[in-house]
Specification:
Elements (H helix, E strand, L loop, with lengths): L2 H19 L3 E4 L2 H9 L6 E3 L6 H11 L2 E4 L5 H16 L3 E3 L1 H10 L9 H12 L7
Parallel strand pairs: 1-2, 1-3, 3-4
Helix pairs in contact: 1-5, 1-6, 3-4
């Protein structure tokens, strides 16, 4: 896939994530991940894993308000373990976990980006590379 096609697919995926986030909360690891998603234009609810609660307590808090969430943790090895653990504890409480956005974004950024917080910079570098002006989000 050439850089332009990659950018188009990445922005399409971010548009789908933004639309889904209008109705479904996104679960991220920390505040820098939340800031990155906000910089990409997401305006819906974003919940933080690293908010001082253990995973079991966090899952109970999430389950009290949400029946479905989007898990969007980093796609490194640690993030993969965290995603699996979060999915396990949330599903015990009846919360459906969408991991599709994480999978697709991971495949689009490949090894160049492993952290959610680095996503806005990657998108901008890719836009510069293909000669596309910054996108208003």
């Amino acid at each position: 896939m050439n850089p332009r096609e990659r950018l188009d697919e990445l922005e399409d995926q971010l548009d789908r994530l933004t639309a889904d986030n209008e109705e479904v909360a996104i679960v991220v690891e920390g505040v820098r991940d939340e800031r990155a998603l906000r910089a990409l234009g997401l305006q819906g609810p974003i919940l933080l894993v690293n908010a001082g609660k253990d995973l079991l307590t966090l899952s109970e808090v999430i389950a009290a308000d949400h029946r479905r969430v989007i898990l969007l943790v980093d796609w490194d090895r640690t993030g993969g373990r965290l995603a699996r653990r979060l999915q396990e504890v949330l599903e015990v409480h009846g919360v459906v976990c969408d991991v599709q956005h994480r999978r697709v974004l991971s495949s689009l950024v490949r090894r160049e980006v492993q952290c959610i917080e680095d996503l806005p910079g990657f998108v901008e570098r890719l836009r510069e590379r293909v000669g596309v002006p910054p996108r208003a989000r």
